Amino acid sequence: MAKPTITIRKADGIWSVRAGGAVLGESSNALELSEGDLPPVIYFPRIDIATAFLDRTDHSTHCPHKGDATYYSIVTKSRTLPNAAWSYEDPSDDVARIRDYLAFYPSDDVTVEQI
Superkingdom, according to UniProt (predicted)? Predict the structure, then answer.
C-alpha cells in the first residue's frame, strides 16, 4: 500500500474552535494538514486552546504515518463531548510540526472555522 502524501502548511488567517457556546481557542498560528484524499484538518497550537475544557480520555488510535493519537473529551457547561479532540504528542518525524498541537472533530456541537 502506497504511503499517502501528507502536507503541513500554516493555515491562512485566524482560526477558531467553539463548543457548547464557548470559544475554546483562536489562533493565527494554526496548521493545515492534508493527507491523501481526506479533507484537510486544522491543528491548533496547544497554547492557544483553553485546555481547562479538555479532559484526556483512555481512547487512542494509531496511524502508520503520524503515530499514536491521544484523545480528549470537551467538557462544556451542559454536556461532555467524548473524544472530540486529539493530538499526536510524539508524532512521526515526517509530521513533527504537529507536536504540541490539537485537532478537533467538527460536528453539530464543535465548530472549527476561519474568522
Answer: Bacteria
Structural domains counted in the chain: 1
Which of helix, strand or coil describes residue 9? strand
Reading the block at residue 46, the C-alpha cell is: 496547544
Give me the residue label for grid cell 494554526.
30
Q: What CATH number does the domain containing 101 carry?
A: 2.170.150.40
- C-alpha to C-alpha distance for 14 and 54, rounded to whole angstroms: 21
Angle at 42 between CA 41 and CA 48, to 5 degrees: 155
Across the range 61-88, mean pLDDT stands at 95
pLDDT in tens, 24-63: 999 999 999 999 899 999 999 999 999 999 999 999 999 9
Q: Is residue 1 in some structural domain?
A: no
